[in-house]
Each structure stands twice: as structure tokens, then as C-alpha cells.
Input
Amino acid sequence: MRTQVVIIGAGPAGLLLSHLLGLDGIDSVLLERQTAEYVQARIRAGILEAGTVELLRQVGLGDRLDVQGMEHRGIYLQSPGERHHIDFTDLIGRSVTVYGQTEVTKDLMVAREKAGRLAYYEASDVAVHDVSEKPHVTFVDGDGTARRIDADVVVGCDGFHGPSRASIPDPKVWERTYPFAWLGVLADVAPSTDELIYAWHPDGFAMHSMRSPRVSRFYLQVAPDEDIERWSDDRIWTALSERLGVDGWTLETGTITEKSVLPMRSFVTTPMRHGHLYLAGDAAHIVPPTGAKGLNLAVADVALLARALKASFRGDDQLVDAYSETALRRVWRCTHFSWWMTSMLHRHGDDFDAQLQLSQLRRTVTSTAAKTELADNYAGLPL
Ligand code: APR
Ligand code: PHB
Output
């Protein structure tokens, strides 16, 4: 089989890339290790930058987003007893939208079905070959048939654990692990807040997010090796109430439907291209979730790559040649922002560190310059 672009991984990066290429008349085939149902049900963050929303609308993916997405003017930043609103719309004229990654994935899958584009789910033993000369990919499909696809270009959208990255020789890797993790909780309860709350607390960071008017999402800072069995529903609600509490406010509780421990790391590999192989999304970089940049960064990569590949197929290689360097500028901006939010809000180190964090928080909620810097990064730079 032959196609123009083989895309490995049908997460948001792979699905969106194939959608964008399709709009430009470029053929692609998607290879995904999991089933479509599994990919669709994976719980991930759900904050879309202004530019991500704009792009999804422009490419015909805005219908459900415009009805179900909840536009937020800003966020709350909290230290014990004090909750401050940072109003992005007032500060910079942009907002963010709460719309689950599961919903973005669903919209992309529906668009894909309609367009009748080829995808192999449950593909195993995916391997990338000869990316310098004659790129091709081999794999075993869901029925056990061994297959080979030749392509002009292979794009690794296969996430942090995928195989594509290994085909880039002599990569330079930057990595930071954090001495804490998040306990993520999904609950059937109306949000007790109109916008997200990020709270510093002596017991550890806590956050109140949401998925819909009836479903809330929460996070608690825990140890990286935390045993989830130690977190009964009662203990979770007590910790959330304490860490998120301010006078005159009550956290509504409900049925917890999912809980899991999420590791936190920063990771960047360069270059993001070798020969005819390109990397996009989590395959090339991971940010800790504080600030919700993961999905938005993946969208930015593939928006850039789709434009570059379109030009390249028309004979102009300027953009593909610049892809890695251009993408990495945004990657490092988001890597810094996510690291900064994470470092400011999570308890680590000693009392001296805590005082520095509180000072930084105070500065961030009181200085217009500091608030604007946060708003600009959180709502996202233009694509
Ligand atoms: N063969 C085929 N597919 C694979 C393989 C493989 N060997 N290994 C991984 N994959 C698939 C995964 O099953 C997954 O569906 O690649 C996909 C990668 O998807 P994500 O991990 O969601 O990565 P990406 O699409 O870059 O996501 C962007 O959104 O919420 C965030 O955490 C998410 O930050 C990430 C971002
Ligand atoms: C989420 O809703 O899952 C979420 C929101 C904001 C973050 C991280 C996660 O910074």
C-alpha cells in the first residue's frame, strides 16, 4: 500500500493532523495500537486555549464545541484563606474554553468517519523504516495480517511511550521529574465554582476543574509513589475541602466515578525531524499538567506541520526545513510556563521555599504586569 503520509498514533495530535491534511487533499493513513473505544474514553485535561478553539472552528470542528464548551474569562489563584480572580479577558482580551479532550477526540473521530479516511486500530508491532530514503512502516493489523505502507512522510504522533522517537538518531533530551504527583478525581457533582481554582496549601496543591455543568474534576498533590488504596472517597473529599476552602464557600460533594495517580514530568527531545520522519505532540515533549498545555501544544505542532507539509507537497520545503526549530520555540515557552506554575503551586523543599512560593503567588495576584504574563501564557500565544 502507498499513501502520502503515515501517521502513527490516533490521539488528538494524530487525529487532528490527518483531518487538517485531508482538508488540503493530502492522503494519510492512521495506525493506532489501541481500539477506537479505548482512545475515545481516555480521561485527559480539558482546557482549550483561545487559538485552539479558533482553529477547531475554522476546520469544521466547532459545532458541539460551541454548544457544550464553557468559556472561562480566567482562573482563580489561591493561597490559604485568599482566593483571587485573574481575569484574562480584561487583561489581554482572550479567554479559554473548558471542553474535554474526550469530546475533541469524539468530534475528530466523527469527522473522520464522514470523510471515510483509512485507519488501522489495534495495530501491533508498528515499526518505522528508512526515513532518509524510502520511508515505510510495517505493522500487524487487528486481524493478524502483516502489512507494509510506503509513504512520502511518516509522522510520529504516538505519545511519550510510542516507538517513533527512537528512529531519530542522536537526539538531545531534556528532562525534569518532580517529587510529587497528582491524584486525579472525576465526580458526578456540579462544579462548586464558575472558573478553575488553583490552590497552594501547606498540605499540598489542590485544584478544582470541571467537565460539564454536572461533572467536576479535581486534583490533589500526592507522593509520586502514592498508593491509591489509601485514598478513600471520604479522605479525598476532606482533603479537597481543606485545601480548597475559603471562608463563606462550600465544596459540594458527589459520587466519585474515577480516581488515578498521574506522574508529573517535563521532557523535550530534539530535533523533531529526521529525514522524512516528523514528531508531534507528546511523542516529542511532555509538560506537567499544571496550566493544561499538553493538548494545546500538540494542536500547535500539528497546525504548523500540516501547513509545512502542504507547502512541501507543492515543492516548497522552507517550512518543513524550519519545522523543528519553529515548533520548539513554542514547546520551550510552554515548558517554562508549565514548570513555573507547577513550581509555584506545589509544596516541595523547606519552609524557605514555601515563603518564596507565597511571595511569588502574592506578586502574581496583585501586580498587573505579573497577572498579564500569566494570562498571556495560559490563554496561549496565537497559533
Ligand atoms: N503503535 C501505534 N500507536 C501507538 C503506539 C504504537 N506502538 N504507541 C502509542 N500509540 C498511540 C497511543 O495509543 C495513543 O493513542 O499513540 C497515541 C498517542 O496519543 P496521546 O498520548 O494522546 O498523545 P498526543 O496525541 O500527542 O496528545 C496530545 O493531549 O491531553 C494531552 O496528555 C495528552 O499531552 C497529550 C496531548
Ligand atoms: C483538567 O480539567 O483536567 C485540567 C485543567 C487544568 C489544568 C490541568 C487539568 O491545569
